[in-house]
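Me: I'm a chemist; would you kindly supply a protein sequence with its C-alpha coordinates?

Assistant:
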Amino acid sequence: MLAHYHGQIWNCAEVSRSLDQTHNTTKRYLDLLSDAFMVRQLQPWFANIKKRQVKAPKIYFRDSGILHHLLGITTEKRLLTHPKCGASWEGFVIEQILRTSPHDAAYYWATHQGAEIDLILRNGDRLSGFEIKRTDTPRVTPSVKAALEDLSLDSVSIVYPGPKSFTLASQVKAIPFATLASHKDTGLEVKNWV
Protein backbone atom coordinates (compact mmCIF):
# COMPACT_ATOMS: atom_id res chain seq x y z
CA MET A 1 0.00 0.00 0.00
CA LEU A 2 2.78 2.42 0.83
CA ALA A 3 4.34 1.89 -2.60
CA HIS A 4 1.17 3.30 -4.15
CA TYR A 5 1.41 6.35 -1.87
CA HIS A 6 5.03 7.05 -2.91
CA GLY A 7 5.28 10.74 -3.80
CA GLN A 8 1.81 11.53 -2.52
CA ILE A 9 0.37 13.24 0.50
CA TRP A 10 -0.24 10.68 3.25
CA ASN A 11 -3.89 10.00 4.02
CA CYS A 12 -3.73 7.96 7.22
CA ALA A 13 -7.53 7.63 7.55
CA GLU A 14 -7.84 6.08 4.09
CA VAL A 15 -5.02 3.60 4.69
CA SER A 16 -6.38 2.73 8.16
CA ARG A 17 -9.77 1.89 6.67
CA SER A 18 -8.18 -0.25 3.95
CA LEU A 19 -6.08 -2.15 6.50
CA ASP A 20 -8.96 -2.35 8.98
CA GLN A 21 -6.67 -0.87 11.64
CA THR A 22 -6.95 2.12 13.94
CA HIS A 23 -5.47 5.45 12.94
CA ASN A 24 -2.86 5.18 15.73
CA THR A 25 -1.77 1.68 14.68
CA THR A 26 -1.37 2.74 11.05
CA LYS A 27 0.61 5.82 12.07
CA ARG A 28 2.82 3.68 14.30
CA TYR A 29 3.53 1.29 11.39
CA LEU A 30 4.54 4.24 9.20
CA ASP A 31 6.73 5.67 11.97
CA LEU A 32 8.46 2.28 12.39
CA LEU A 33 9.25 2.14 8.67
CA SER A 34 10.54 5.72 8.86
CA ASP A 35 12.71 4.91 11.88
CA ALA A 36 14.14 1.94 9.94
CA PHE A 37 15.09 4.36 7.10
CA MET A 38 12.82 2.53 4.63
CA VAL A 39 10.36 5.39 4.20
CA ARG A 40 10.82 9.16 4.33
CA GLN A 41 8.02 11.31 5.70
CA LEU A 42 8.72 14.69 4.16
CA GLN A 43 6.98 17.21 6.40
CA PRO A 44 5.12 20.25 5.04
CA TRP A 45 6.50 23.80 5.23
CA PHE A 46 4.10 26.36 6.66
CA ALA A 47 4.18 30.01 5.71
CA ASN A 48 2.13 32.86 7.10
CA ILE A 49 -0.01 33.36 4.00
CA LYS A 50 -3.75 33.54 3.38
CA LYS A 51 -3.86 30.33 1.32
CA ARG A 52 -4.90 27.04 2.94
CA GLN A 53 -1.80 24.86 3.16
CA VAL A 54 -1.51 21.07 3.21
CA LYS A 55 -0.57 19.76 6.67
CA ALA A 56 0.07 16.04 6.06
CA PRO A 57 3.50 14.61 5.15
CA LYS A 58 4.43 13.25 1.73
CA ILE A 59 5.62 9.63 1.67
CA TYR A 60 8.68 8.37 -0.24
CA PHE A 61 10.46 5.03 -0.28
CA ARG A 62 14.09 5.93 0.30
CA ASP A 63 15.36 3.12 -1.95
CA SER A 64 13.99 3.21 -5.50
CA GLY A 65 14.92 -0.47 -5.99
CA ILE A 66 12.63 -1.54 -3.15
CA LEU A 67 9.86 0.70 -4.53
CA HIS A 68 10.21 -0.83 -8.00
CA HIS A 69 10.15 -4.35 -6.56
CA LEU A 70 6.98 -3.65 -4.54
CA LEU A 71 5.31 -2.19 -7.65
CA GLY A 72 6.31 -5.23 -9.73
CA ILE A 73 8.58 -3.20 -12.03
CA THR A 74 11.29 -5.54 -13.30
CA THR A 75 12.69 -3.80 -16.40
CA GLU A 76 13.65 -0.30 -17.47
CA LYS A 77 10.97 -0.40 -20.16
CA ARG A 78 8.29 -1.21 -17.57
CA LEU A 79 9.55 1.58 -15.33
CA LEU A 80 9.44 4.19 -18.09
CA THR A 81 5.82 3.28 -18.95
CA HIS A 82 4.58 2.80 -15.37
CA PRO A 83 2.15 5.38 -13.89
CA LYS A 84 4.54 5.84 -10.92
CA CYS A 85 7.55 6.67 -13.15
CA GLY A 86 7.45 10.40 -12.34
CA ALA A 87 6.92 9.81 -8.62
CA SER A 88 9.77 7.29 -8.57
CA TRP A 89 12.07 9.81 -10.28
CA GLU A 90 11.00 12.51 -7.81
CA GLY A 91 11.75 10.33 -4.78
CA PHE A 92 15.12 9.23 -6.16
CA VAL A 93 16.21 12.81 -6.88
CA ILE A 94 14.99 14.08 -3.50
CA GLU A 95 17.07 11.42 -1.72
CA GLN A 96 20.17 12.40 -3.71
CA ILE A 97 19.66 16.12 -3.03
CA LEU A 98 19.28 15.42 0.70
CA ARG A 99 22.47 13.33 0.66
CA THR A 100 24.59 15.91 -1.14
CA SER A 101 23.23 19.37 -0.26
CA PRO A 102 23.96 21.05 3.05
CA HIS A 103 20.76 21.80 4.98
CA ASP A 104 19.34 22.13 8.47
CA ALA A 105 15.87 20.85 7.57
CA ALA A 106 13.89 19.62 4.57
CA TYR A 107 10.23 20.14 3.69
CA TYR A 108 7.77 20.26 0.82
CA TRP A 109 5.09 22.90 0.34
CA ALA A 110 1.58 22.62 -1.07
CA THR A 111 -1.65 24.56 -0.92
CA HIS A 112 -5.20 23.29 -1.32
CA GLN A 113 -5.44 25.54 -4.39
CA GLY A 114 -2.83 23.36 -6.17
CA ALA A 115 0.46 25.24 -5.75
CA GLU A 116 3.32 22.94 -4.76
CA ILE A 117 7.10 22.77 -4.53
CA ASP A 118 8.67 19.30 -4.22
CA LEU A 119 11.48 20.12 -1.80
CA ILE A 120 12.50 23.09 0.33
CA LEU A 121 15.85 23.10 2.08
CA ARG A 122 16.45 25.45 4.98
CA ASN A 123 20.09 26.22 5.59
CA GLY A 124 20.35 28.90 8.27
CA ASP A 125 18.20 31.82 7.06
CA ARG A 126 18.34 30.65 3.45
CA LEU A 127 15.42 28.82 1.79
CA SER A 128 16.06 26.98 -1.47
CA GLY A 129 13.34 25.28 -3.48
CA PHE A 130 13.63 22.26 -5.76
CA GLU A 131 11.10 21.13 -8.32
CA ILE A 132 11.80 17.71 -9.81
CA LYS A 133 10.54 17.09 -13.32
CA ARG A 134 11.02 14.06 -15.55
CA THR A 135 10.89 16.07 -18.77
CA ASP A 136 13.27 17.23 -21.48
CA THR A 137 11.85 20.76 -21.43
CA PRO A 138 11.67 22.17 -17.90
CA ARG A 139 9.73 25.39 -17.48
CA VAL A 140 8.62 27.82 -14.81
CA THR A 141 5.20 26.61 -13.67
CA PRO A 142 2.54 28.61 -11.83
CA SER A 143 3.47 26.58 -8.72
CA VAL A 144 7.09 27.76 -8.92
CA LYS A 145 5.94 31.37 -9.32
CA ALA A 146 3.59 31.01 -6.33
CA ALA A 147 6.33 29.45 -4.18
CA LEU A 148 8.78 32.24 -5.02
CA GLU A 149 6.19 34.87 -4.21
CA ASP A 150 4.53 33.33 -1.14
CA LEU A 151 7.57 31.76 0.54
CA SER A 152 10.28 34.30 -0.32
CA LEU A 153 12.58 31.54 -1.56
CA ASP A 154 16.14 32.56 -2.39
CA SER A 155 16.13 30.33 -5.47
CA VAL A 156 14.35 27.45 -7.17
CA SER A 157 16.21 24.73 -9.04
CA ILE A 158 14.25 22.61 -11.48
CA VAL A 159 16.07 19.27 -11.59
CA TYR A 160 15.56 17.32 -14.80
CA PRO A 161 17.29 14.41 -16.61
CA GLY A 162 18.55 16.59 -19.49
CA PRO A 163 22.14 17.49 -20.44
CA LYS A 164 22.71 21.17 -19.55
CA SER A 165 22.03 23.91 -17.01
CA PHE A 166 20.29 27.12 -18.01
CA THR A 167 18.43 30.03 -16.44
CA LEU A 168 14.65 29.99 -16.84
CA ALA A 169 13.82 33.20 -14.94
CA SER A 170 15.13 35.39 -12.18
CA GLN A 171 15.90 33.03 -9.26
CA VAL A 172 14.94 29.94 -11.33
CA LYS A 173 17.45 27.63 -12.95
CA ALA A 174 17.16 24.26 -14.70
CA ILE A 175 19.80 21.82 -13.46
CA PRO A 176 20.54 18.40 -14.95
CA PHE A 177 20.51 15.59 -12.42
CA ALA A 178 23.92 14.42 -13.69
CA THR A 179 25.45 17.79 -12.79
CA LEU A 180 23.82 17.77 -9.38
CA ALA A 181 25.01 14.23 -8.63
CA SER A 182 28.56 14.70 -9.93
CA HIS A 183 28.91 18.07 -8.17
CA LYS A 184 29.66 16.30 -4.91
CA ASP A 185 31.55 13.37 -6.48
CA THR A 186 28.84 10.89 -5.51
CA GLY A 187 29.40 8.62 -8.48
CA LEU A 188 25.64 8.64 -9.10
CA GLU A 189 24.14 8.66 -12.55
CA VAL A 190 20.60 8.57 -13.87
CA LYS A 191 21.09 4.82 -14.49
CA ASN A 192 21.32 4.31 -10.69
CA TRP A 193 17.61 5.18 -10.54
CA VAL A 194 16.61 2.32 -12.83
